[in-house]
Amino acid sequence: MSFLLRYLEIIKTFCIKKPWLSGFLAVVVIIAGFYLYRNFTKTPEMNYVTVARGTVSQVVSVTGKVKPAQTVDLSFEKIGKIIAVYHGVGEHVYQGEALAAISTADISAQLDGAMATVKAEQAKLDELKSGTRAEDIYVSQVDVDSATSDVINDIKSSYVYTDDAIRNKVDQFMSNPKSSNPQINFVLSDNQLKNDIEAGRLAMEGMLVAWNSSVSKISASQDVVSYANEAKTNLRSVQSYLDKIAFAVNGLSVSSTLTQTTIDGYKSAIATGRTNVTSALSTLTSASETLISNKSKLALKQAGSVPEKILAQEAALDAAKANVANLESQLAKSVVYSPIGGVVVKQDSKVGEIASPSAVLMSVISDAQYEVEANVPESDIAKIKTGNKAEITLDAYGSDVIFTATVSKIDPAETIVDGVATYKTTFNFDKNDSRIKSGMTANTDVEGERKDNVLFVPGRTITTKDKIKTVTIFDGENTSEVVITTGIRGSNGDVEVLSGLKEGDRVKTK
Predict the structure, then answer these.
(1) CA torsion sign, 52 to 56 to 61 to 67?
(2) Which residues lie across from 73 on neighbouring strands?
(3) Which of 109, 343, 422, 504 is the most exposed place for a label (fewest CB within 10 A)?
(4) Residue 419 burial by CB count (10 A; 0-12/13-18/19+): exposed, middle or buried?
(5) How far out from the chain centre does Cα 290 lie?
């Protein structure tokens, strides 16, 4: 009050001396005095927060990449020439679907022989167990003679079909076919194929001459099976040669020297030749197997059987079956199958190349499930564990599209990234979604430790000195410092209070 009286006295004196400004100055002085008085007497304002219960949670944010939950790299298990590629990059394949194959000509031939051996060994065992009669021996001899005659006829027919396929059907577009320098009459862009065909024709001529000599000597009293094996070998080589011829002829196009009629004639002739040779091989193979089986039956009946022989024959049969199983296993390795359903992302197999067992030629990624891999810094890794839930946004779709996921794996060993120890963490999407693609950038927020219905205060209200944490609380108009025990710190800065405060306490903010 004395303060106001002093200012009123000043106003009065001033008004006497300057009556024309007295009104204006009086107002100014009164307002100034009022504000000065208010500032001198104002009670300091208190800044505080009220202790309440709520949720404190730790959220770890990391960035990673979407990758398939399963990726397989594939290669051939044995060396061989690639003959087929069934699927290219980007194509979808089902589990068990073939991706590529290598040549099996050598194994197939061995398997044919091995299966024939099994039949022969089985026949021997059957005869040993059933015993022998004179009538049976006679019948078996008749069967052998008949089968021998069939094989001889089939060998001769095979030669005739082969001679016709080479010297008639192939030689119609060859110059000097029986000389040391046969030439193809039409132009081929593939020089290697041209050279193979011309060199092959020279080899075919030598084979036909030798085979003709062999066929002229064959008789029922000789080892007809060896002649049959020679014939089958020759037929397979002719098959391979005619395959190359067919490839060349099927690629021909009409030119000034080739009419469509001529080309069609070549194609028809080669197709007929291939059919005849294939049929001859099949017939001869069947006939020779029958002969081998009949000879084995006859031999067993002529020799009689004793227990020791039966045991020995059973062992021989088991060995023959094991050989077949081994060859079948090798045959299965000639084709690479996809072990999962998915999309081919790598296909380096090329027809004609030699595949190496150590080279990865194909890769398939699964299309059923994707996951995210991210490197979590050492400072955050203790906050999360497997089973924690996460929310993921993909840059491709923006922050409004949220995908849920779960922590499925945390690598125990560190990965150094830019000099910082990190731990590779895998997140599995909770649901399949066609929008998720491999390679997308994924922004992941994973919830770590979470506590509900706990007391908490903002971290800025806490003072730490010598590892002792305190806060300042208001008690009426007075303040006091209280020691508190804290729990986890949330990602938003809130800190759990374990002791020292109660719900409703007012804590001074800094």
Answers:
(1) negative
(2) 363
(3) 504
(4) exposed
(5) 46
